[in-house]
Design goal:
alpha/beta; 333 residues; two-stranded antiparallel sheet; TIM Barrel; 29% helix; twelve-stranded mixed beta sheet
Length: 333
């Protein structure tokens, strides 16, 4: 009989949503994430193998109560074993919720295979529909690839296709209404995310961030928003009906309206580190123990201990806040 324990912290929160970064590599160079020249990627021997990834996910599901797995990066579609990892994770249970957060480059050719492997849906990062602005933000001319990838995901049944958009002051902060109209027209679900201090350059400044209140004001110019009736629960997005529904739009106000008290997430980096918070300054190494021969019980014990030390909140609004050393591309969203 497998012993099951919750991934609980000292504040009564229980993690059931596992975010698994499969790589720190990415084929875009978004200005709010990394410099134009890219970063020093993890050596391949420091990255978890496919078997190691699946083993740790299995421990999370069978021993620690994980019910949702989100594959992230970097860009998870550059991981050659992604489809097989999804298939093996799906074999752990039909009730698991499996998703991928992606920039959608390559999704056009992989969407059908991912659906057949058991993936439920995708989250696509897209900040603008303007080709020039897309190039300014991502430093790549790939907007058409993203749009085709989103359509392929929708056609493959990876629904609802969720679009994650970050508004950058002076760059795309007047794109909110166009993005929402486009998303509704294509039956996608749009989520605006406040820019967070997770860039490799450590160049984030609060005054440059487009806030949730500003996003609502921009949308109000063309749409009527009303609070959604369904409870938010642990979901990061605050949902609103658009013009009475059924379409919705979400705003993830991680900075100005933190929701740490309801957090149910835990992260596993591509090199096998447990992060109990997106903004954690410390990590717990599972890879070293795994490769030293630790059994599943010991790995589960280490994971439980890592979660027990989770802080009450991310502390962005505290004067003593320090940005994590690792950028988002190395942590995984």
């Amino acid at each position: 009989m497998i012993k099951q324990r919750p991934l609980a912290d000292a504040y009564g929160r229980v993690a059931t949503d596992l975010r698994v970064s499969l790589t720190d590599r990415c084929n875009l160079r978004c200005s709010y994430c990394m410099p134009a020249e890219g970063l020093d990627w993890l050596p391949h021997d420091e990255t978890l193998t496919d078997d190691e990834v699946v083993r740790l996910i299995t421990i999370g599901v069978e021993r620690l109560g994980v019910r949702e797995v989100r594959f992230t990066g970097g860009e998870p579609l550059v991981r050659r074993g992604l489809v097989d990892i999804v298939r093996r994770t799906r074999a752990l249970g039909s009730e698991l919720q499996l998703s991928v957060t992606t920039n959608a480059l390559g999704l056009e050719r992989n969407a059908r295979a991912l659906a057949e492997a058991g993936l439920d849906r995708v989250n696509i990062s897209l900040d603008t529909l303007d080709p020039e602005r897309f190039h300014t933000i991502t430093r790549r001319d790939r907007l058409d690839d993203v749009l085709r990838g989103a359509k392929a995901a929708h056609d493959a049944g990876l629904t609802p296709v969720k679009i994650n958009a970050v508004l950058l002051r002076g760059v795309n902060d007047d794109d909110a209404c166009e993005l929402l109209a486009w998303a509704i027209d294509h039956q996608y679900e749009l989520r605006f995310i406040e820019q967070m201090p997770l860039d490799a350059q450590h160049d984030w400044h609060r005054e440059q961030m487009v806030t949730a209140d500003e996003i609502f004001a921009k949308l109000a110019a063309e749409f009527t928003l009303s609070p959604a009736t369904e409870p938010r629960g642990s979901a990061p997005a605050e949902l609103f009906l658009v013009d009475g529904g059924p379409a919705t739009v979400g705003v993830i106000a991680s900075v100005t309206r933190p929701f740490c008290g309801d957090c149910d997430r835990v992260r596993l980096t591509a090199d096998g580190q447990v992060r109990n918070c997106l903004f954690a300054r410390e990590e717990s190494d599972l890879r070293a123990a795994l490769r030293a021969g630790a059994d599943d019980d010991e790995l589960a014990d280490r994971w439980v201990t890592a979660m027990a030390g989770k802080l009450p909140g991310h502390g962005i609004n505290d004067p003593s806040f320090l940005q994590p050393d690792r950028p988002m591309s190395a942590i995984g969203g």
